[in-house]
Design brief:
The chain is α/β, with parallel strands linked by helices. The protein has helices at residues 28-43, 49-56, 64-74, 81-92, 113-120, 133-140, 166-172, 187-196, 211-220, 233-249; strands at 15-18, 25-26, 108-109, 124-128, 149-153, 180-184, 200-203, 226-227. It is 43% helix and 12% strand.
Length: 250
């Protein structure tokens, strides 16, 4: 069941746009684990998931390479973006410094092909992700659900990454931003949606680290709802459809 209603979904959307990480894919064992390992590798200091979420709650840190560079630097180990990228990729792609396989192999999808196909039967589906094309293709090139997305915008397809709204603007073109709905799990997703004028719903479960602070920030940025899982969107879409039918009858 979706969490407490925040605002009304003013109209039935025609276009659904999804972030990938934390929305369609569980990244706790991939990106999150790699970020923690990268900072420890660079600084020699143990860091925690609570610290990770504090960094993730800041604008501009949807990009894990930028986040780990600044995080390591703040701990006394000056680190460039390229240095962070190289270190991060050792843990993400492997082989890791201890010889283990990369964390990318821990990736798990959170949504079924059947659900994606059901949405595609009623809405135009698109993806706007902070992944690059290589990262996206590893998990999605052979996934049957990928074929249902009309446009896929990665960090390689934009000049300015999130929180800049360029990716959303590329998907929409000249179409009304109010005809779309964007689902994301990061503050940068909410900022991009706000600046593009696209209605936004946040994927965040009550058990997650820093839930209250993150939930408050999402509300402040205009989130229509806080959904524990992407499939909880169905409740809102049904309600919006019902409201629209009632308007036609009146």
């Amino acid at each position: 069941m979706a969490t407490k209603k925040l605002r009304k979904l003013a109209r039935q959307p025609e276009i659904l746009i999804f972030d990938v990480d934390g929305v369609l894919v569980d990244v706790r064992g991939t990106y999150w684990r790699s970020a923690l390992a990268t900072v420890e590798y660079l600084t020699g200091k143990r860091v925690t998931y609570a610290e990770l979420h504090r960094w993730k709650s800041k604008p501009g840190y949807n990009d894990d390479w930028r986040m780990t560079a600044d995080w390591a630097t703040s701990l006394g180990r000056p680190t460039t973006y390229v240095q962070a990228q190289e270190a991060f990729n050792k843990f993400y792609w492997g082989p890791q410094p201890d010889g283990q396989l990369g964390n990318v192999r821990n990736e798990k999808l959170l949504i079924s092909v059947r659900q994606i196909a059901a949405w595609a039967g009623r809405y135009e589906l698109n993806l706007f992700t902070g992944r690059n094309r290589k990262e996206f293709a590893f998990s999605f090139a052979k996934w049957a659900g990928t074929a249902h997305f009309k446009k896929i915008i990665t960090m390689d397809d934009v000049e300015r990454s999130k929180p800049h709204p360029e990716g959303l603007q590329k998907i929409l073109g000249n179409r009304d931003p109010g005809s779309a709905l964007y689902l994301g799990d990061n503050i940068d997703d909410a900022l991009a949606a706000r600046d593009a004028g696209v209605p936004f719903m946040a994927i965040i479960a009550p058990r997650e680290h820093g839930f209250r602070a993150r939930a408050r920030r999402f509300r402040d940025l205009g989130a229509l709802a806080l959904l524990p899982r992407a499939k909880d969107l169905n409740h809102w879409l049904r309600k919006a459809g019902k409201n629209r039918r009632n308007e036609f009858r009146s």
